[in-house]
Amino acid sequence: MTKRSPIAAPAVVPDRSLDPEGTLPTIAIRAPGGHALIYRKMVDGPVGAAAPNHGDLVRVVDREGQHLGYALYNGRSQIALRFLSREAEPPGLAFWTRRIEQAVALRKSLLNLDRETDAYRLLHAEGDGLTGLIVDRFADVLSVEVFSLGIYQRIGPILSLLAEKMGTDHYRVNVDERVARQEDFSGRPIDSPQIPPRVTIEEHGIRYRIHFGDAHKTGFFCDQRDNRRDLARFCEDRSVLDLCCYTGGFGLNALIHGKAREVTCVDLDEKAVALAKENGNANRVRLETVHADAFVYLRQMGLNNRNYGVIVLDPPKLIPDRDEIAPGKRKYFDLNVLAMKRVEPGGLLVSCSCSGLLPSADFLGILRAAARMAGRPAQLLAMTGASADHPVALDVPEGSYLKVAWLRIGE
Questions:
Q1: What is the C-alpha separation between 236 and 257, in angstroms, rounded?
Q2: 78 & 102 share domain
Q3: Mean pLDDT score, 223-240
Q4: Can you give the pTM of this predicted structure?
Q5: What are the E-state strand segments in 147-249?
Q6: Is residue 205 a part of any domain in this protein?
Q7: Rounded CA gap, 166 and 186, in Å?
Q8: What is the span of the domain harbouring residue 40?
Q9: How far apart are CA 41 and CA 90, in angstroms?
Q10: Whole-number Å distance between alpha carbons of 79 and 398
Q11: What is the pLDDT of residues 370-386, one digit of tens each?
């Protein structure tokens, strides 16, 4: 999993206006469809004299010139157009304000997340109608991931709107190295003045430390909130193995709320192991932590004939792009075969995939094949996903990236 580069804030936060700038260029596409993301091969090209610059807001039409909406343009990216609006009028400050207010209302008014945590996803890209932008709220800090040049150019005004609606004082902005290559721009990380190097958040009564300098993604995986909570009811007096543990969230819920007999947290990242141990200390419980590769650890436990009542397998994204679908599927298969062999008869395997390019049906197919290879019958108790603060746009179904299979493993 790609980590955030060291803090190197630019002197000026990009502050391109959220209002349309003069006469908008027009781009024609070959097939309208209904998807929010338009790949470069589907773009016919500019219409009229005004040529778009990378990052511009543009009007989008079909080959016959029929209006389709407005999008952010980047001709250097494989995703050339990211739709913002299908309305007749171009989106301006009022549009951005309305989208942000709707996102805040979902989390605060409908989901009432402030009652159970001070860490949640505030904006979920296409799911909240703002493609290329992810924002997590961690106490007084807004942690931002940007996937689009057009969004990065406007991040200053966006942050101002978010801070106004949330009452937060600090922010951090990160652009993943892979995204920067795909979008072909050097999106340097941005941090607000005096941002604390770490914060402590609370979720379902459990405290977690977030160290921004060493963080994965935005710093904490809010998507697994409900799954972490639900694991607890399966753990009483059982031995629990939390593989690819990162912050130790599943292990902590198993120990604190689930009354597990013992919990072992394993991660390949040495800093993640230290963080899981720190989180245990913050909650005055003892987690056994192991710095190891999940494949190697499971094979070693096989040699030791060591089994567990509950295993949580939550690896990083094993299919980061389309070129790695086949090898990624193989990794999911191999890892689940090893894990299934280490579950006690009648025990539970919680197997996760956060690869958006792996459909749920394909993931279940991998698990069926893994169960056959492991020689273990398996019952699917439930199939869950990300918590509700990660909404999915119906026209961008790949936004439903997280798949969590709850499997009872037999003899």
A1: 9
A2: no
A3: 97
A4: 0.91
A5: 170-174, 190-191, 198-203, 206-211, 239-243
A6: no
A7: 29
A8: 26-85
A9: 24
A10: 15
A11: 999 999 999 999 999 99
